[in-house]
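To: structure desk
From: M.T.
Subject: fold request, one chain
Message: Could you run this one when you get a chance? Sequence is below, nothing fancy, just the single chain.
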Amino acid sequence: MHSIDTVKTRQQGDPHIPSKYTSLSSSYARIFRQEGVRRGLYSGVTPAFLGSFPGTLIFFGCYEYSKRHLIDSGVHNSLAYLASGFVADLAASVVYVPSEVLKTRLQLQGRYNNPFFTSGYNYRSTLHATQTIIKQEGFAALFYGYRATLFRDLPFSALQFAFYEQEQIWAKGYVGSQDIGLGLEVLTATTAGGLAGVITCPLDVVKTRIQTQVNPTEQVVKGIPTGQSTLSPGIPKSVSKGQQSVRRISTSSPATTLPKQGAVPLNTSSVFTGLKLVYKTEGLAGCFRGIGPRFVWTGLQSGTMLVLYQMLLRQLEAYPLVAGEESSVI
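Reply: Done. Structure tokens follow.
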């Protein structure tokens, strides 16, 4: 699944017109052919793994606790699912946002000294990326885009679990049993994640645009290793004001992009103002840019995660950690 996430990042981050990365299949083949598997399709997999494991534990622990507490308190089930998704994602964000910063930079960069794609930064490894970011930008840079990421991920998690819990109810009613089988488990999980991904795609686009806004007065871009430049090849580093503006590097989430030439700058940190501007200038197509890879990625991710989650819950119910009366015999 990580390789699809890499393709998604490259599709949205490609500054070329026309884009080098078009469809999912052709982009996948292009990255594989030019950069290989480890440094191409699976670049950034180390921080993704390091962040996803503790982040998932925190997420599901908070979700299950919040859901049961709210339902026991008399809150309507649908509202409890939504609220629990918000709380769980907020708690896990402390862990996964820094990993997202590292993962996305490495994904967008690809191989070290990549001759096929210019991202604006050049890290040798995850450790080198971490050291460079902290040294040149400060520790807080690992949380760059924190608020914008939450604007996208909190609604996604809430919608995903609201859809999933409701689909589970429908499936159990259709089968007439609490055990709906692996096929329906996968179907309910993937459709819930995919649908939530589609609905939140405009927030994904606006978050990306906000993080990559051009600052005409900015003369120095932080976080770029010595000798690196965000300017296109052949353009001098010293350019008179008004001829060439310098952008800040975008660092957070799979949807991080470099702005395409001619893309309208939002010049705002407001998600809602950004949504209005994107819709006004680019229509619905602009609001849902990258929807294909996002649907596939979120569907596969949710399908895997939620099915394993249900299997774990059933195992805990069958073999509870507290044995009851038997524990007093020991």
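Reply (cont.): Residues 77-109 form the longest helix (33 residues). Let me know if you need anything else for the meeting.
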